[in-house]
Design brief:
α5 packs across α11. The N and C termini lie far apart (48 Å). This protein has 11 helices and no strands. The protein is mainly α.
Length: 233
Amino acid sequence: MLSRRLLTLNAAGFALLISWWVPALDFWPDLDGRVFWAFNHLISPLNPHWDTLLGLLNTRFFDAAAFGLMGALFCWAMLEDPRPDRYRHWTSLGITMLLTAGIISLFVLRAISYGHASPTRVFQHAQHLSELVSFKTKDSASNSFPGDHGLMLMVFASFMLAFAPRRIALWSLAFVVLLSAPRIMVGAHWFSDVYLGSLSIALIALPWVLCTPLATTVARGMENALTRFKPHA
């Protein structure tokens, strides 16, 4: 029997998609435009310090730092676990999480044909941050839907919500907002790429992993395999 939580989360995901698909609703295009121009007007040669900061937040270095922050949260959750086999347990959960992220990424790549260019490629008079800083930064994409960066953050946060202590789970939720924001602020993603595209996929797909025995069963199998593994001397 399907749990009420799974059905509720799935319903929320489908409701998001319907709110975007119904032609009479102009909510998402209007919100996307408002959010983009609110931040794009701040990108200017008159704000060099802001331009530099925003540029740094959209480099590969920051992406690596964001991955490091998630790793630190994961290690924190592992160290908070009182069980004696916590390292093996959390290693198994980590592998399960990576498998889930990989399968969802493959599904998005192969099954979702819809896509669109980022706002900096759509609006003719958009300010491009890459033209104002002296280093390489990401401020556009030929296809920005759905937000892959935001989706992976949501996968991580969902696993933390399911298995980590509450305060760590809340930090992981905060990271979804904080670490996906730079892409939206610079115009590499529309607001809806993350909070409609990524979020609807997360709400539809992840409950089938985390609100059912699937994740726990896969992790337990991984844990049993690690228990039997004996490295050669």
